[in-house]
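Researcher: Structure for this, please.
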Amino acid sequence: MAETPVLEAVARTGTGKGAARAARREGYVPGVIYGGGEDPLPISVRFNVLLKQLKAGRFLSTLINVRVDGKDNTVVCRGVQRDVVKDLPTHIDFLRLTDRSRIALHIPIEYVNREQSPGLRRGGVLTEVRHDLELYVTAGNIPDKVVIDLAGTEINHTIHISAVTLPAGTTPVIGDRDFAIANIQAPSGLRSEEGGEEEAAEG
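Model: Predicted structure, token format:
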């Protein structure tokens, strides 16, 4: 189970534009947590804390634990409203999840058995086309990573999604093509030699 980042928040008393403006004056970004069979919960998040997480990337596709006055809420972000001039967050919406909710998340890739790859042993270079995979997962069982075995891979070998054993209960978001994830390229010296041989054969 992947570790879920925690975002501290406080319950926001009052709703409407006046309450939202008051929260912003105090250094907070107003927001709401909705869904999951519960009533919407107005919240406020520290502006600088939220901005840091937004700049870290993938905020809209990361499972988050929004802790409101000590109570945990498993959520995903479903929208960030921004100031049209400054491009800074002015409001944020979170969707509350249950353990059975299906969501799309980016899961990191780990490559194993590099020493058992003949292509890498010959000096080939592993080029990672993707560093993570966007998968449909169950909120209550999110994998830490996707493991890709490099044993037996040769130079010019390309690893496609169809060759990867995905964690149980997950499916790729991209389902209409057999996309590439990584490949093993020949070392520059070997590429030069092959190019020279081709030129000699043509001459």
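Researcher: Any notable elements?
Model: Residues 193 and 199 are 10 Å apart (CA to CA). The chain has a mean pLDDT of 88.
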